[in-house]
Amino acid sequence: MKKNFLKLTWLLFIILVGLGGCRKEDDLNVDIPSMNPDEPLENTALDQWLTTTFLDPYNMDVVYRYNRYYGDVARNITPPKVENVQPMMQIVLDGFIKIYEEIAGKTFSKSYLPKEWVLFGSNSYPSSGSPLAGDAAAGRRIRLYGLNNGDAFSPGSIAGKLQVVHHEFTHILNQLVAMPTDFESISKRDYSATWSTLSRDSTHKLGFVTSYASGSAGEDFAETVSYLLINGQPWYDYWANTSTAEGRANLIAKEQSAISYFQTGFGIDFKVLQKTMQTYLKDVIKVDGISFAYWLNQNLYKTMDINISDGLYLTYGISADFKKAYDDFNTQMQARYTAHYHVDYLQFIFNSDEDLVVRAYFTAASGGTQYAGDYAFKMNVDQQSGATSFTKVDQPDGTTYSNGNLFLDLFESTIQQYLTSHEFMADWIPDELPADEFTTIAGFYVNGDKNDKFYGTLGH
Amino acid sequence: MALFSCKKDSYIAKFNEKPQQRAGEQIQLVKDILVGAKDGWVATTTTDLGGGYGFYMQFDAEENVVTVADLTATSQSEPLTSRYRVKQDMGTDLVFDTFTYLSMLNDPNSDVFGGALRDGFKSDIEFVYDHSSDDSIIFIGVRYRNYLKMVKATAAQKAAYMNGSFKDDVDQFKNFFLTNKNAYFDLEVGGESLKVETVVNSANSLDVGKQVSLAALFPNGNVISQSAKFAYTLGSINLLDSALTFNDITFTHFAWAGSNKLTLYDDANNAYAIKNSDVPIIPLYKLWGSKYNEMLSPFKQIFPGTSESGKEILNFFHLNMENGYTGYGFNSAYLKFVWNVVNKRLVLNGFSSQNGGQSGWTTSCSYDYTVDDQGVYSFVQHDGFSGGYVQKAMTEINDFMLNNKIKFEYYAGGDTIYVQMISVDDPTITMTFLLS
After folding, report:
1. Is the ipTM of this complex over 0.90?
2. Does the distance separating the beta carbons of A66 and B96 come in below 8 Å?
3. Distance from B351 to chain A by nearest Cα, in Å?
4. Residue B83: Cβ within 10 Å count
5. For chain A, which residues score pLDDT lower than 50?
6. Taking CB atoms and an 8 Å limit, are A121 and B62 in contact across chains?
7. How many whole angstroms separate alpha carbon A169 and alpha carbon A176?
């Protein structure tokens, strides 16, 4: 026993000496890259552009030359066409990096934005399910796939890529500032590990933007944020309005939670971020589906209210011709009857994507009942360009039309004259609106003259 | 104690340099060889799922590679510059690291070049250096282990590849086989002269594309058929890997032996002139079970050689997939006949899928057949329909099989050789299928 004890002591001694006895300095001197040499030359104009645009200012590495270990080793993923690298990274720069830099500041963007961008030519095909357009790894690497696809630079495809980027970046933000607990509780009972078997329609009814969002609170948060930024507020409102009452309440609660998360966690005004993102997508990428014209065609908005004495028009101006037509109509209306009716405000009622009623709410000088007088129009809005024309049609029967007929001749020579004698462009105007009013106010300007505009507050 | 108290710098290399130094030298060696060929390289490779492919490549020290390839009319005539690099991996790797013609064989998107979904043609874009000689360098694909063999090009070859005349060269070969539909050569076997059917399939399809096949009907009644993958290189059709061994002769390549005189050569440089016969050397029906095993009608594809009444029969299947006629909706499907010559049986499979063909269900039935010496088949039902969900849409093709005497003939359409199924009772009913 004692012998064994001695043996054990010796053994322990040897192990301890052995552990402590090595000189570690040599290990520290190993030059790791030289052990596994893989150093692509950076010798082209593209490499230079990537260095000065991403590496120098943001310490971001853009890997476009194929490296199996940056993809998924078990999948065939082809390298990108060289000529597609700069256009894609320009979109990442303008549609993501610059936007965060502008709104959250240089320190934020240099500290937190992903440090490694890996580009591939084909999509990444999992063993089952849909091919991937992008994904993220380790909180610092974002992989964008499918740069060689024929439609890689179509507006829809670009929006899809940016959606992935914003989605993944939301996860990174969640690692810095934990997701709000109130968000987690909103749909807590509806999260399901088998989300992939659920249709988008069924998860829509529960108040998720996608089926994927119903997988977990973390994915839900990232999907909600990225859809608010990329698809935009009108889409989100439309999605909420076409859900169930419960789903709608959930979607609205999630939106509010996300907005306050960005404010309290990072001091970022989410509505400003959203407006900047939407303006970029609308004006630069020309994404269909986020324009006012698109949503008029979807009949998302039911009304647009114009009260010319509202402070809104003092701040942002309104077409002189429209104002004159409105004022003339109002003045002549007051002169017609002894009750001296006057116009309270105009309401454009969008009954469908082509049936428009212009309604004048009017009241007697002495006050009392407010009446509605209607004028029927056809409206044609081109979804792509936004070009819009109004055509007067016969007045149908009914009380509000009878009310309108009392002043029909006055309306014809003033407001109708203005609406039918121009070609307009439907748009989110005025441009200068603060972010929290963006897409809550919109209107039309005369094609070719953005100052000759009229607009109003939208109602669902 | 001594064992454990090692000093790390006392490491003694098995070789006289550290691993990283040797790796660095190997990288430089491979790069020097590649760049050192002043007129570039003529390269060939094979793919796991398809045939072989031929390339011209010129590497520069700035990690650019200019490529011409026999894949498409564009790749044959328009040199494409892309990037490459040599790096250390499981060996010394040559990586074609931006898009080039070679990547098309690797692409997981079947729309790019017709490869299989996810796998492409099972061909690599990374290759491990294997060995080199004075005029060649050999690599092996990292994932699929196919050889990429390069031989130094001459100045004349470089000029032809770079000025687009490689396409004319490929077209000349293709035209020869379009004109000479029943190509063959004579082979002396046991004192008798055999006609060996020679088929060069230039289609970029999976399975049988880019392959040369030789077949002959031996005096004892046996049909022997052998095939090999090939690549076009300037002036030659190269039989790849271990070439094509037929009746113990190893054939290596086709080349021109004078204007429009195509010749097949063996490894002893014996020449075999390619001739043309007015009738097929071996009737197609003799090749069921040896050379060809299946006839395929892919989803909603009607091939040339299909008559109006034949189209109706095929479309009764294809056009009743999406509309709910079967009781279900499918977005991908195909009809496939499979020969079982041993049991004198033909199986008909109707596959249908709801996810674009990634997975699905198969409805099958089978026929017993008899065939006369004119190659006319009569079919009777062996097993009725079972499995799957598309029996209803297969009734017309099933009725056709049972109610007609049928013969099978070759049908050439462009680069592809199809099989045409013809009703002997009513020759206006013809249907064309892919052969495999």
Report:
1. no
2. yes
3. 19
4. 24
5. 1-3, 5-6, 12-18, 20-25
6. no
7. 11
